[in-house]
Amino acid sequence: MKLSENYILKTVAGTAVVVPVGDAVNDIRGMITLNGPAETIWKCLEQGMEFDAIVAQLKSEYDAPEDVLRADLTAFIEKLKKYKIVSE
After folding, report:
1. Distance CA 69, CA 63 (A)
2. Helices 51-61 and 36-46: crossing angle, nearest 10°?
3. Can you give the residue range of the structural domain that contains 9?
4. What is the C-alpha separation between 10 and 62, in angstroms, rounded?
5. Please, which pLDDT band fits residue 26 given cuts at 50, 70 and 90?
6. What is the average pLDDT value for the chain, to the nearest integer?
7. Do β-strands 2-3 and 86-87 pair in parallel, antiparallel, or remain unpaired?
8. Rounded distance between C-alpha atoms, residue 73 and residue 19, angstroms
9. Looking at residue 23, which CATH number applies to its domain?
């Protein structure tokens, strides 16, 4: 999976936000606020990590069953794909 170059992760007042740049400014107005797990996923995607590696990272950071982590990761990635923030 590859993140679009048109979105960057920033920290604003202690909160992780994704900011659209370039052509993406026309697609998404404003910023996207990320919670802790979403920020972890974003950073994993920045490193080029694949799905199973991201699940392993989430499992090491959060006390949640693996099936829940997989379902949540799938849902988050589908949202990112919908807005063309991530591609295969």
Report:
1. 10
2. 140
3. 2-87
4. 22
5. confident
6. 93
7. antiparallel
8. 20
9. 1.10.10
Which residues, at least 6 apart from 86, have a Cβ–Cβ distance to it below 8 Å? 1, 2, 3, 4, 45, 77, 80
**Type of residue numbered 79:** K
Domain count of the chain?
Answer: 1
Read off the pTM: 0.90
The alpha-carbon radius of gyration of the chain (Å, integer) is 13
* Cα–Cα separations (whole angstroms), residue 39 to 20, 26, 35, 78, 84: 16, 23, 6, 16, 18
The residue type found at 24 is A
Amino acid at residue number 29: R
* Pair of tokens at residue 15: 């909160």
First to last CA, the chain: 4
